Amino acid sequence: MNGGPGMGIPAGVTRVSLLGTLATTEIFDTSFWFSGVTAASADDATAQATEIAGYVNTRLTAAVKTLLNGDSSFDRVRCYAYPTGGPTATYVGEFAIASGVGTGSSQLPLQAAYCVTLETGLSGRSNRGRMYLPFDAITLQPGHLVSTANRDTITDFIGNVIKDVNSSATVGIGCVVSQVGSTFHSIVNVRGDQRIDTQRRRANRQSRGTTHSFDVVV
């Protein structure tokens, strides 16, 4: 499935944002797209966000939550509908995630993130998507890697949410949107590896706490 050539967000797609809060009250936002049933009103967009929030809440198992620190949480789903294309969403709707608070206690830097790649089966960066997920309570293994069990838990969490969307008659099919080519292609695979990635902008937003200086002038 794809949209025609051009520039910008193509018509008939919706961006699904998973929004949450980190310890410093920073709002994080990671997203994927779907095509298919495009909202015709703000109420439609809210209904779709409500449905997807239900999927997210179901997939936020105990194993997933323990990888997120107890002072961080997934809070809500927001849908931005583009029935006639971009750059501005025509309709926006959101709904709360019922139980998205982390249960982990480890303390990774807030700019640490786990990256899931959304693949369409087509080559080129514009035909792949990425979701950066701030799982800040992961315990790393030798080699500074995520365990294979945690890799699978996070990747399957996102994969199952997108699969739930694909199975819905009132939402659509998960896709990757290229704003360069104004195209979209269906997601066929969700992939994760054992590396921790970074979202460097978060370091600038984190509280410095207290500071200490040492005078070296004789």
Q: Unreliable runs, pLDDT <50, ≥5 residues? A: none
Q: What's the arrangement of strands in the largest beta sheet? A: 4-3-1-2-7-8
Helix fraction by DSSP (H/I, runs of at least 4) = 10-25%
Q: How many discrete structural domains?
A: 1
- Please trace the helix and strand order, writing H or E for each element: EEHHEEEEHEEEEH
Keywords:
single chain, 218 residues, alpha+beta, six-stranded antiparallel sheet, 30% strand, globular
Task: Describe the protein.
- By secondary structure, the chain is of the alpha+beta class.
- It has one domain.
- Helices cover 22% and strands 30% of the residues.
- The chain has a 6-stranded antiparallel β-sheet with strand order 4-3-1-2-7-8.
- A hairpin with a 4-residue loop joins strand 7 (172-178) and strand 8 (183-186).
- The longest helix has 20 residues, at 148-167.
- The mean pLDDT is 90.
Helix and strand layout, with pairings?
Elements: E1 13-21, E2 27-36, H1 42-59, H2 62-65, E3 73-82, E4 91-96, E5 112-119, E6 128-133, H3 148-167, E7 172-178, E8 183-186, E9 189-191, E10 197-198, H4 201-205
Antiparallel strand pairs: 1-2, 1-3, 2-7, 3-4, 5-6, 5-9, 5-10, 7-8
Helix pairs in contact: 1-3
Can I get a quick summary?
This protein is an alpha+beta fold and 218 residues long. Helices cover 22% and strands 30% of the residues.
